[in-house]
Amino acid sequence: MGRPKRDIRAAAEESTTPPDQLTTLQSVAKVIKAEGNNLYSCHLPSQRTVLVELAARFRNTIWIKRGGYVLVDLTPAQDQKGKVEGEIVNVVRDEKEWRKQSYWPKEFPRVTYEDEDEDSTVGKMPPSDSEDDD
Which residue, 70, 68, 76, 44, is CA-closest to 55? Predict the structure, then answer.
């Protein structure tokens, strides 16, 4: 039997609102790759790559896409068990709201695609043969 809808809605609602402030061990990270078994490789703002585990309340309820942002709670080095360096405690779903927070890292700039319009051939007709016959 599946999870109750109230658990799924609670997890989704919790991830839409950013926290007011972060603890010293928490950081916003960018997801690089899903490693399997609820493990993800993430880039920290310091460009360090860490392996983190998805919190149990988000498993099978929220999916994380590559290139998305998550809130990671890192465990101290002496408490680490194996290669896992922390836990994903929140998933950034409303990125616009999260970017307004003071703790959003400057190393994760907003990506715009305005410069690529000049070289794009989307929506344009291919050149006709009559233009070549001069």
Answer: 70
Answer yes or no: are the C-beta atoms of 23 and 72 closer than 8 Å: no
Instruction: State the Cα–Cα distance between residues 96 and 8, nearest whole angstrom.
Output: 23
Residue ranges, the chain, pLDDT below 70 = 1-3, 8, 11, 15-16, 112-121, 130-134
Phi-psi region of 17 (alpha: psi -120 to 50; beta: other; left: phi over 0): beta
3-state helix, strand and coil shares in percent for the chain, rounded to the nearest 5: 20, 25, 50
Q: Closest Cα partner for 101 from 31, 28, 38, 52?
A: 28
